[in-house]
Design goal:
The complex is a heterodimer of chains A (315) and B (421). Chain A is mainly alpha-helical. In chain A, 71% of the residues lie in helices and 3% in strands. The chains are: A mainly alpha (315), B mainly alpha (421).
């Protein structure tokens, strides 16, 4: 029972972190039709910036400054990069962001080195919030949950209740008409791209000391975030949210399940043995293949629903 | 195929046949190991890049799991070679790459059935997921993939159609060459079949292709599967050459490499990826030995190609065709020469900044020192930084100015060469 509750909470924390990344990706995608491959790289930059700022000013200023820096970088990428390649079509835009992954990844290695950064949870939040059946729940995870829920709420309010949000929503579907009404659609595009990068940066700030801040973190996070976006359905924020939470849960629960496929059929009297590939696949415990599950889930959902969970459109 | 292209292809093949002998070490009576292995690497990378271009260039599909098929071909070959060597299964060495190709084809059929339901962006993401799935699985399942250590084999199985032992690198090189020529020939033939033409059509306007009664999904699926087949052949040759296959051969980095080679070479021309594969392999063998920051250079080269020359190197060469036919190439000599100096300043400045930065952090951690022309350079003093940044900024400004000039000359030159409508 305690394992279940703690895993549930951890899954929620991880899922919300994923959603902060995936929501920015989905927003950018549904507006500009561009999938930002460098999104996880921005997440990594957020963590590194946060570390650097927290060395000088402390964690809480970093929580504000680092995402803003990431947002500015995002705006620069949009204005000087994406806009230039836009007329060459979507594939060129994809390739452009894909190239950025290399450059940002190596730039981070060259600036901060190959070793993990000592980016730690701030002392003020470094205590167990409560104990459940003897297992501690760190206060920092609750803080992460608070930040991501606050971000989710404010993004939602911004998009649905403000004038800016209405213009953004309108530009999602009818960019030409919005432009004809006198709004500057390219600026809206830049704002959304910068906003998505800001969210990714914020995720980096709170994710950098939850996981480790090291040059491989973009490669570790990137594929999972893309799987979340595909699983939830391209361009659907609600689907993206559900998919994030599901993926977060799967990742945390997989670690504690020590059963394999062969254990399911064992009561039926079927036992697998021998040294072959089939036996290996059937007897490997779920805990060991946790990293594989998101991709298996993605393949499975695509098999039944090619557009993802709540996707309404093909690319 | 036009006569000129055929002759060009033959010249390239003859060149590839002769190259190992150009670098033959007569003093020790043996082949240059470095050259032979680089040429062999080139052969399989050419197959990988051209088969990747069946997707990116010809069908407009941005795939990120191409290495999966390459790797599956490689793993199959290793297991086949082990079966031939240890259990005496009668398969001659020369046929094994074909079987590796079939393994690639089978894998591509399974994954293609799912991935080709979508196109463009969704396709790219799904293939990314598939690539990660296979790379993760390769680390987990030891029976087929051998985990992190990979699976090794011995290629001297003594079963050959021509009585060859494949003990030396040069015999393997000629096997690779033969298979590369076969694979490239087949892929060229495919571009002229109805399938190849329909792939182009679905790339350019898939709704219109659909309207004509073709199923774009089927076209994508067939193209994807066949590309997997050829990538599998490349993987088979890889396994024969290195006698070990690890998960690197199906990891994302190799898929990205295929993309870089195809794009930098030029996706719009059939020979483009070949050019790209040769260039990247040479650079990789040369620059990666000299510099830590090899990937930065490739990344920047790639991004600048995406931004400024989307047609790639081959496309740039092709653009000169009309000018050359009009006999006005001489008008371009001076503008090109004027690009050299700012180009040099730009490249030197950029390389300087990158190298200084990387020696400042990574190099210091590895205990390396930056040595230029035999004299050590102190990366902590200001002068090299000032020189590099100065050269970079001067290069950028000057290049902007000169390229505007070049653009004007080019426009004037080509304005009356364009076909009238």
């Amino acid at each position: 029972m305690e394992v279940f509750v703690i895993s549930l909470l951890n899954g929620l924390v991880y899922g919300m972190l994923l959603f902060m990344l995936a929501s920015g990706l989905t927003l950018i995608f549904s507006m500009m039709g561009v999938l930002n491959f460098a999104h996880a790289s921005i997440y990594m930059l957020g963590a590194y910036f946060a570390y650097q700022v927290s060395v000088f000013l402390g964690f809480f200023p970093a929580l504000i400054i680092a995402p803003i820096l990431c947002g500015l970088i995002g705006a620069a990428i949009e204005v000087w990069g994406l806009r230039r390649v836009h007329h060459n079509g979507h594939i060129a835009e994809l390739l452009f962001t894909f190239g950025l992954v290399f450059i940002i990844g190596r730039a981070v290695q060259m600036t901060w080195g190959m070793l993990p950064m000592p980016y730690r949870v701030p002392a003020i939040l470094d205590f167990p919030l409560f104990s459940l059946y003897g297992a501690n729940f760190p206060a920092y995870r609750a803080f992460m949950l608070l930040v991501s829920a606050g971000m989710l709420a404010s993004t939602w309010l911004l998009l649905t209740k403000t004038r800016v949000g209405l213009i953004i929503q309108a530009s999602l579907t009818h960019p030409g008409m919005v432009g004809a009404l006198g709004h500057n659609v390219p600026v809206v595009f830049t704002t959304v791209f910068a906003g998505g990068c800001l969210l990714a940066g914020l995720a980096g700030v709170i994710g950098g000391n939850y996981q480790t801040t090291e040059p491989g973190m973009a490669e570790a996070m990137g594929p999972i975030v893309f799987v979340v976006v595909v699983f939830g359905g391209l361009g659907s924020l609600a689907g993206c949210f559900i998919a994030s939470i599901i993926m977060g849960m799967i990742q945390t629960f997989a670690v504690v399940i020590d059963y394999s496929l062969a254990d399911i059929v064992k009561p039926l009297g079927i036992v697998f043995s021998g040294d072959n590939l089939l036996t290996e696949i059937l007897t490997v415990p779920v805990a060991r293949i946790g990293a594989l599950l998101p991709f298996v889930m993605m393949v499975a959902i695509l098999f039944f629903r090619p557009r993802g969970l709540m996707g309404t459109r093909d690319t | 195929m036009r006569m000129r292209e055929l002759i060009f292809a033959l010249v390239v093949i003859v060149l590839a046949l002769l190259l190992p002998w150009v670098f033959y070490d007569w003093a020790h009576n043996r082949h240059s190991g470095f050259m032979v292995s680089m040429l062999s690497q080139m052969g399989m990378m050419i197959i990988l890049a051209v088969s990747y271009n069946m997707l990116l260039g010809q069908a407009g599909l941005f795939s990120l799991c191409h290495a999966t098929f390459f790797g599956m071909g490689g793993y199959t070959t290793v297991h086949l070679l082990n079966a031939v060597g240890k259990e005496g299964v009668p398969i001659p060495m020369e046929v094994i790459p074909l079987l590796a190709g079939l393994a690639g084809l089978a894998t591509a059929i399974v994954f293609g059935a799912m991935a080709t339901k979508q196109r463009a962006t969704a396709f790219a993401m799904i293939t990314l997921g598939i690539g990660e799935l296979m790379a993760t699985a390769a680390l987990m399942f030891h029976h087929f993939f051998g985990g992190e250590g990979g699976v090794s084999t011995d290629r001297m199985v003594d079963r050959s159609l021509f009585g060859l032992s494949y003990a030396s690198g040069i015999q393997v090189y000629y096997l690779i060459l033969v298979w590369t020529v076969i694979a490239i020939g087949l892929m060229y033939y495919l571009t002229m079949t109805p399938l190849g033409r329909m792939a182009n059509a679905t790339r350019d306007n898939f709704e219109r292709a659909q309207f004509m009664g073709y199923d774009p999904r089927m076209v994508r699926f067939l193209q994807f599967s066949l590309a997997g087949f050829f990538a599998g052949i490349g993987g088979g040759l890889y396994a024969i050459t290195y006698e070990i296959v690890t998960f690197d051969s199906l990891a994302g980095a190799l898929s990205a490499n295929a993309l870089l080679m195809a794009y930098i070479g030029g996706t719009g021309v059939f020979g483009g990826p070949i050019l790209g594969a040769i260039l990247i392999t040479v650079l990789q063998s040369g620059v990666s030995l000299l510099s830590n920051s090899w990937l930065v250079y490739v990344g920047v080269l790639f991004i600048s190609m995406v931004m400024f020359a989307p047609a790639g190197l081959a496309g740039m060469i092709k653009a000169h065709g009309p000018v050359r036919r009009a006999g006005r190439m001489h008008a371009l000599i001076v503008p090109y020469l004027r690009l050299v100096l700012p180009g040099l300043a730009l490249v030197l400045g950029f390389v300087g900044v990158v190298e200084l930065l990387s020696f400042y952090t990574i190099g210091a951690a590895q205990g390396k020192k930056l040595v230029l022309f035999g004299s050590p350079i102190d990366v902590k003093s200001a002068i090299p930084w000032v020189i590099s940044f100065g050269s970079l900024i001067v290069g950028i400004v000057w290049m902007k100015f000169e390229s505007a000039h070049f653009h004007r000359v080019w426009e004037n030159l080509t304005v009356d060469l364009r076909p009238r409508r």
